[in-house]
Specification:
The chain has 15 helices and 14 strands. It is an alpha+beta fold. The chain has 2 domains: 229 residues, Transferase(Phosphotransferase), domain 1, CATH 1.10.510; 116 residues, Phosphorylase Kinase, domain 1 (2-Layer Sandwich). It catalyses: L-seryl-[tau protein] + ATP = O-phospho-L-seryl-[tau protein] + ADP + H(+); L-threonyl-[tau protein] + ATP = O-phospho-L-threonyl-[tau protein] + ADP + H(+).
Length: 417
């Protein structure tokens, strides 16, 4: 990106912000605080019914992720650790009954509360969201230690690793993949936002992709929350580089539009080959944002956090979007970025407005294929719920070649296009 992150010309902005907004310097948590827990509730610990000492087969009593609470025995094998962090550990395993690979996310459970991630995942059902197949509780090594285990779809790759692969090869990810991945991300956001859920941690690492089919599934709802107007939320949420400016300003009454900002950052990163707003602190990130968008107006500041409207910022002009990106970047991609990365949260495109954007028109052409020659993943299998979100967009969202399939299948709640 044209060395715009390397110059020191805006050091005064950083010094000014630090002096006026010292609380911003600490806004870089990497995990969700415990506002992700609610309501005291008892629940049964699922005893492990049998464990092969060699680790070959484990059988537990688990509850299906969707539907009635009817616990059943589930056996799995080939267990190996594939990830860990402050949240817990993620294992890969293979179900004995179906031979399908699954991911098992194991997190320490606070006995006093329900787990918000579990509550949210149990009500989500969408092709671009990782599915909760089962859940069960297990005891830990310490006395009274209990773990929640979420058995999820296993998807082998992430957008982060795919992008890193192309970066290491000193090449840019093909634009068709950018379109396919981002379109599916916006579909997933449209769905969860329609359910009142804000993800609060959109980043390339949380976008799972199948490298063969290009299917994308949004994962990790450990920071997600059902946002209720009038109820305050923590502002120290979302991973660095992808934090909306209202979060950096300390807003607690934000909306699901913080996810849209994060998605815009992901899109920009795929186009640039590097994060658009890097920084190790809220100050660093705000400086980078101002260097691109310019100094926010008083009205924009009010929309982000009314408490800061009386402060005067050094006046920095916006950097032209065409100069932010490389010369061969498609104009439609730049235009979409500019509509996502807006200071005013309500001015950002909605997820379905993003799906309907001209940047994705190629996906609506009947003969578009992946670079491998494979057909595109299912992009137009909208449910009646999805099509009721912004029905005025449906004529754009459903391309002509897909419409003939809608009438016969609408009765089942799915429009299999």
């Amino acid at each position: 990106m044209q060395n715009k992150h390397k110059n020191g010309g805006h050091l005064c902005v950083a010094i000014f912000i630090i002096s006026r907004f010292p609380q911003m310097t600490g806004f870089i948590p990497e995990s969700c605080p415990h506002d992700s827990l609610t309501d005291v509730t008892p629940w049964p610990i699922s005893g492990v019914q049998s464990v092969d000492d060699s680790g070959k087969v484990t059988t537990v009593v688990a509850t299906p992720g969707q539907g009635p609470d009817r616990p059943q025995e589930v056996s799995y094998t080939d267990i190996k650790v594939i990830g860990n962090g402050s949240f817990g550990v993620v294992y890969q395993a293979r179900l004995i009954d179906t031979q399908e690979m699954v991911a098992i996310k194991k997190v320490l459970q606070d006995k006093r509360f329900k787990n918000r991630e579990l509550q949210i995942m149990r009500k989500l059902d969408h092709c671009n969201i990782v599915r909760l197949r089962y859940f069960f509780y297990s005891s830990g090594e310490k006395k009274d230690e209990v773990y929640l285990n979420l058995v999820l779809d296993f998807v082998p790759e992430t957008v982060y690793r795919v992008a890193r692969h192309f970066n290491k090869a000193k090449s840019i990810i093909p634009i068709i993949y950018v379109k396919v991945y981002m379109y599916q991300l916006f579909r997933s956001l449209a769905y969860i936002h329609s359910q009142g859920v804000c993800h609060r941690d959109i980043k390339p690492q949380n976008l799972l992709v199948d490298p063969e089919t290009a299917v994308l599934k949004l994962c990790d709802f450990g920071s997600a929350k059902q946002l209720i107007r009038g109820e305050p939320n923590v502002s120290y949420i979302c991973s660095r580089y992808y934090r909306a400016p209202e979060l950096i300003f300390g807003a607690t009454d934000y909306t699901a539009n913080i996810d849209i900002w994060s998605a815009g950052c992901v899109l920009a990163e795929l186009l640039l080959g590097q994060p658009i707003f890097p920084g190790d602190s809220g100050v660093d990130q705000l400086v980078e944002i101002i260097k691109v968008l310019g100094t926010p107006t008083r009205e924009q500041i009010r929309e982000m956090n009314p408490n800061y409207t009386e402060f005067k910022f050094p006046q920095i002009k916006a950097h032209p979007w065409t100069k932010v990106f490389k010369p061969r970047t498609p104009p439609e991609a730049i235009a979409l970025c500019s509509r996502l990365l807006e200071y005013t949260p309500a001015s950002r495109l909605s997820p379905l407005e993003a799906c309907a954007h001209a940047f994705f028109d190629e996906l609506r052409q009947p003969n578009t294929r992946l670079p491998s020659g494979r057909e595109l993943p299912m992009l137009f299998n909208f449910s009646t719920t999805e099509l009721s979100i912004q029905p005025q967009l449906n004529s754009i969202l459903i391309p002509p070649h897909a419409r003939s399939h809608t009438a016969a299948s609408a009765h089942g709640g799915k429009l299999l296009l």
